[in-house]
Records
---
Amino acid sequence: MYTKSNNWLNAKIKAIKKLTKQTWKFTIQFDEDFIFTPGQFITLKVRGVQRNYSIASFSKNRNLIELIIVKVENGKLTTILFRDVEPGENIEIKGPKGNFTMPENTNRDIFFICTGTGLAPFKSILDEIELSGKYPKRIFLIFGTRTKNDLLFYDEMKKMVKSIPNFNYIPVLSRENWEGETGYVHQQYNNIVKNEKLQNPLFYLCGWRNMIVDAKQQLSNLGYDSSNIKLELYG
Ligand SMILES: Cc1cc2nc3c(=O)[nH]c(=O)nc-3n(C[C@H](O)[C@H](O)[C@H](O)COP(=O)(O)OP(=O)(O)OC[C@H]3O[C@@H](n4cnc5c(N)ncnc54)[C@H](O)[C@@H]3O)c2cc1C
């Protein structure tokens, strides 16, 4: 069994699945169980290039983890992953790392705010909540993306709405009209904060700099500071 390690662990890419044209799911298989807390990330090294990725899964099968990775134009590692790598490729992993994890006391309102592959750590946390049956008081997942086709794990999320009590899933599209919410993530938490009676809310923000900087500012305008906000900045 692997617990936290500062050494590189040998693993391999077991499967690659296209979730959307630009975002693929990579299933990683370890030789032994890989122990982590949902919300954490790992460092992935492929063909000498290393980058950090949030773990996007949690299952009873502890020697498997899933990553969801978006292709970045001319990105060094993502070009290798999307162009050259196939299932069976030997890779190395370091970790788990980070404390973007659930608080001990979950008798409070939890907000997960993300765009794109920033959904990854929340998917892992939700998988674990569903599996354990230990439900926090209330969760609001606000997930921003462009079009319906970009709604990562849409079916899984709809299923969790039924299986996890008080789980509110709010997908928001910025470039397509549909039956759900449109615009940006910011309007959604602003509405909830203004209209709901919240209990000691804790805000998790995950993704790229622009969304995170805006959200921090808007939450500060609403009266929340770093003691109520946890960040995972992708770049
Ligand atoms: C803790 C942590 C967890 C992460 N988890 C994930 C994850 O789960 N999924 C995931 O897809 N990425 C994740 N990332 C980002 C990832 O580490 C890489 O930065 C990303 O895959 C690009 O690597 P690259 O080598 O292809 O591009 P590089 O050659 O390193 O860089 C390309 C340039 O594009 C910028 N850039 C990269 N991605 C974007 C983007 N989407 N939008 C705008 N600018 C961008 C970078 O800042 C850089 O300037 C995470 C980063 C951190 C720090």
Note: The first strand starts at residue 5 and ends at 18.
---
Amino acid sequence: MLTVVCAWKSPLFKQTWQEVYFAETPVLIESDDWGPGATLHAQRLLQLLVCLETHKDSVARAAVLTADIVLSVPDIDKIMADPDGAYHRKLLNEVSPSIYQAMLLGIKQGVLVPQLHGLEHLNGEAFARLCQHKDPRIEGALADAQQWCWETLESPLQGHYVDGSVLPTQPISQEQAEALIALAARRFTELFGYPSLSTVAPCYLWNSAIEKLWQENEISVIQTAGYRCDGRDKQGAYHQDLSLIRAGELSEFGQVYLVRNVMYEPVDGHTNVHSAYQAALSAYAQALPISISTHRYNYTRTEEEFQNALQGLDQLLTAIGTSITALRFLSSPELGEQLAQESVGVVNHFNDSQWLPLKRLSGIKKLAPFLRRLYYRHPKLVLLAYLSGLIIPAGLVCRYSR
Ligand SMILES: [Zn+2]
């Protein structure tokens, strides 16, 4: 029976076996949408960073926030005054200097690593057009340009590399994409002193042409939720053009994909410390990185919501730290570099700190996490294992490993 299953599933087994298995578990905290905002955000960010500082890994490095940065917001007054209807933006350091300074402090202390999210979290051309037409969908922006936040836009309008003003969404033109990405890369480096080697697209909407431009602008690591969406259909539903991405796989242009596998978004009400902890343990059992997704809005709303989110994150990191002794806090670009190449030191390029490379599992030590990857990913294979009795030896291997 074993011979038949091995022969039938040989390519899958081979591919899964050749993936990277970590002996030291990388733990990432990925937080989207940091950027211009209310002054309050600076204080909240600093408190969040103080909490991270109290959690240390096996090499005494503090937990680090990969802050996915939105570099600018629309300059609504300028857009409205422009007779040509062009888009205008205000940069993070101009519009929210205290938030920018809080970020720089976090970078210096090594508890924040910035990563490009987008030049803005909307489509500039579409936004300017809606302004000219005084479209009701941007009523809030026109009523109070100073206080308004892009997070209040309806979801299709928050995409950056697509135009979602009419559904189905349309990808932006090549010319527009080239200009946006080149400018974002330049501004990011000016603001943070080093290029963004990694990125995550606003609303997880991007395509292969965008990846090529990222690659031409030094972006060698792409953060995902395990799939790529190139647009939204007539009803607004997401369309996946890559439906299954594994951490460590390479894009068409050689970029390393990362995958978020732990959701901790308490403000949404769908996830909590317990569910996030269970997902983290599942990743650990498979010798995978633990990538926690926790958006800015969990920390920037009411004081009660903030305290709840912060205490929960603290509990989650404590629980992970208690269960996993060989854990390493990393940022996304660092994990990308570790996946791309074995035995190179971990380098935080933003403050020049360095640590030992991440240890990997090899040979027979990979067997238990390999079996668990198959178990979690392939239900039909699991059924076959039960029917054939192969589940018993496989279960014993997993039970008596770490
Ligand atoms: Zn976002």
Note: The chain is about 40% helix and 15% strand.
